[in-house]
Write a structure and sequence with these properties.
By secondary structure, this protein is an alpha+beta fold. It has helices at residues 2-33, 149-152, and strands at residues 35-45, 50-56, 63-66, 68-75, 78-86, 92-98, 101-106, 112-124, 127-136, 145-147, 156-163. A hairpin with a 2-residue loop joins strand 8 and strand 9.
Length: 173
Amino acid sequence: MNRLFRRHLRSLPTLVCSFLYLAFSVVSAHADEKKTIGWIERVSITTEGLTMDAKIDTGADFSSVHAEALRYFDRHGSRWVEFILHDEDNNRRTIQRPLVRMAKIKKKTEGYQQRPVVMLQICIGDATHLAQVNLAQRGHFKYPLLLGRNFLRSRFLVDPGEEYMLDPLCTAN
């Protein structure tokens, strides 16, 4: 029995090292899945071929984009919204999307504001993600698109000291 114990004891360091290697490999692999981005990134809305700057805001729950001339209408029994977006060269694009929901957004001063929410396909780097984005009046802000935690979660790490780390490489659909 003593000999059997010593033989297993000799393999203990190998087992411990193997366990640690596997444990850290899983953590490392998970961290590798997330891309690091800066607090400002150039993104594209791939379905429209629009490129614009986005502020990455980990303090915001939801994403929002500056949209103009909102018009609601019915199509095939569903509620839709038409709106205008501007790209980085200030080119206008009229877009129509199904209305996902109306978001109740708390105002900085007091009360709440209702905003329409649509799905947009957003590209950062070589990754495209479908996201719920509320349509807002952001004309007075420097960046037309704000990407909040609903878009960032489980996908990106944010380095607040960096800007424009990943150019959008996705092609328009």
